[in-house]
Write a structure and sequence with these properties.
Elements: E1 3-9, H1 11-15, H2 19-28, E2 32-39, H3 43-49, H4 59-66, E3 71-78, H5 81-89, H6 102-106, E4 115-117, H7 121-131, H8 145-148
Antiparallel strand pairs: 1-3, 1-4, 2-3
């Protein structure tokens, strides 16, 4: 069974021309890009997305950051997609992230952390719905899916 998650390539990564390299990390792992678009997140949309953090000291800065330039939003799908994507992204702050992860290889900042990924199934469903209509998400089986992960694996 394929799981879906929302990934956002944030403004700092777009500005640094890292989009293709980051997308490739997910594809190289065997995950599928089920939907993808380049957008400018509005303040209203950012406030919905990060509403759970409203009132926290970092909330205003987070909204300002995610709305500061274009982003790539995508639905990434595959077996255990949420946990696999979070591992690929690495620790939140680039200076803490392991080499080999996206943040570990491309980031050193606490503020600019390159990518966002949903932290659980409920969050993924909520976030995907913010950015994509159901008909924008493509669940097309690939011929190599059975070689990526077997259905009977735990």
């Amino acid at each position: 069974m394929n799981e879906q998650t929302l990934i956002i390539i944030k403004p700092d990564a777009v500005q640094r021309r890292l989009m293709g390299r980051i997308i490739r990390r997910f594809e190289d792992k065997g995950l599928t890009i089920a939907a993808l678009k380049l957008i400018q997140i509005t303040r209203e949309l950012a406030e919905k997305h990060y509403g759970v953090h409203e009132g926290k000291p970092f909330y205003a800065g987070l909204v300002d950051y995610i709305t500061s330039g274009p982003v790539v939003v995508m639905v990434v799908a595959g077996p255990r997609a949420i946990s696999v994507c979070r591992k690929l992204m690495g620790a939140t702050f680039g200076f803490d992230a392991e080499p080999g992860s996206i943040r570990g290889d491309f980031g050193a900042s606490k503020t600019y952390n390159l990518v966002h990924g949903s932290d659980g199934p409920e969050t993924a469903a909520f976030e995907i719905d913010l950015y994509f209509a159901p008909d924008e998400i493509h669940d097309t089986p690939r011929t190599d899916d059975s070689w990526i992960a077997r259905d009977n694996e735990p």
